[in-house]
Design brief:
The chain is mainly β. It has one helix and five strands, in the order αβββββ. It has one domain: SH3 type barrels (Roll). Helix content is 10%, strand content 39%. Strands 4-3-2-1-5 form a five-stranded antiparallel sheet, with no helix packed on it. The longest helix is centred in the first third of the chain and has 13 residues.
Length: 127
Amino acid sequence: MDLIAELEAEQIASLGKSVPDFKAGDTIRVGYKVTEGTRTRVQNYEGVCISRKNGSGIAGTFTVRKISFGEGVERVFPLYSTNIEAITVIRRGRVRRAKLYYLRSRRGKSARIAEDTNYKPLSGAKA
């Protein structure tokens, strides 16, 4: 392992966060800490993960898309953000692409993603 990968693994270990195994097409719920004045609360953001960038490293991000009041809303989350309380996988999607940007132009039934019923976790993935 090269030096940069070792430093990155060290930083991830120091954060003490466990990120579930998810990919594009999965419906996920992200518990995000929101600060309002002096109080902080956890706000859930549930939608379809349409992309993951920079792998599972410290700079990794993922984009979640949901429909809110008939309007499509996307949000990009850093994978190891301190503001993320929890990431929960609601359902696994069966897709054939790594980036699902085509969902931006789809509405209704054509924007549906089939559920992956026989999902097997990756052998090297962390639970």
